[in-house]
Amino acid sequence: MNPQIQFLVNHGYTLLIAWVFAEQAGIPVPAAPLLLAAGALSGTGQLNPWLAIALPVAATLVADFLWYELGRRKGVRVLQFLCKVSLEPDSCVRRTENVYAKHGARSLLVSKFVPGLSTAAQPLAGIFRMRYSRFLIFDTLGAVIWVGAFFGLGYAFSGELERIMAAATRLGVWLLYLLITVFVGWIGYKYFRRQRFIRQLRIDRITSDELKRKLDGGEEVVIVDLRGSLDFEAEPAMIPGAIHLDVSDLEQVTEQLAQAPEVILYCNCPNEVTSARMALLLRRKGVKKIRPLTGGLDGWRRQGYPVAQGVDASKVVE
Fold first, then answer.
1. Is residue 17 classed exposed, middle or buried when 0-12, 13-18 and 19+ CB atoms within 10 A define those classes?
2. Which end of the chain has fewer CB within 10 Å, C or N?
3. What does the alpha-carbon distance between residue 247 and residue 229 come to, in Å, rounded to a whole number?
4. At residue 39, does pLDDT exceed 70?
5. What are the E-state strand segments in the chain?
6. Mean pLDDT of 65-77
7. Across 243-266, average pLDDT
8. Distance CA 115, CA 119 (A)
């Protein structure tokens, strides 16, 4: 028997638990290849198919429940942390919130297949206080669908396992070098894209201290909260005098904003990406005195400045 296959047979169950738990805990170690191998080994009678499915499902549920509890206890800070350590943090917050807002508990059924949502859906369920029973039902179904899809694919092609492993053995260390090169290249490409995107968003920002001095001095500024709707529902506190507007609605009030002495935008995303992007867009549309707030709402509160209920967005359009 191929030594790699023998290793998987001898340690397969332990690997399935540890590897799947690590991936669902947020470590970038893809579990899909291992699930495919488990399906193939089960198809040749070398692993128990029921255990090969039940163990990774159980590992997934344990990791998911931990994320759910973190979401309940720590709130949106958990989602912000996940997006900051992501290779593509800039749209992570809004993308995951939009999917969850549209599909609710049903998003848990397919979250494992969606990059960015795979880990974020569970803390989102906790942030918005989904019932334990409802979370358990949908998350269990989602885990079974995810594990079953890759396991079933491997099971269907179990006859090709020996051939694939024999080819991998012939390639030997060159295959390892190739895999490492592809992985490093992929991470490098993602990092390069992120840095290029951030450079494109260079625009003068205003600090929390500067904004506080303007407010204390009675200067007329329009402050716009651009957080996603779910973020706003979970934490409706805002900078005093601010209004909440969805990004999709911001362009509709361009004329009103152009008449304001100064417009300050803030969000909760890494690098103030959403507010910087919208500031650049609105500048091109004629809103000249507009700046993103460095650090967003979190930066404002870290300075110890007060928060309050904001103004309804419809009042800006009047």
1. middle
2. C
3. 10
4. yes
5. 222-225, 237-238, 243-244, 263-266, 290-292, 308-309
6. 85
7. 82
8. 9
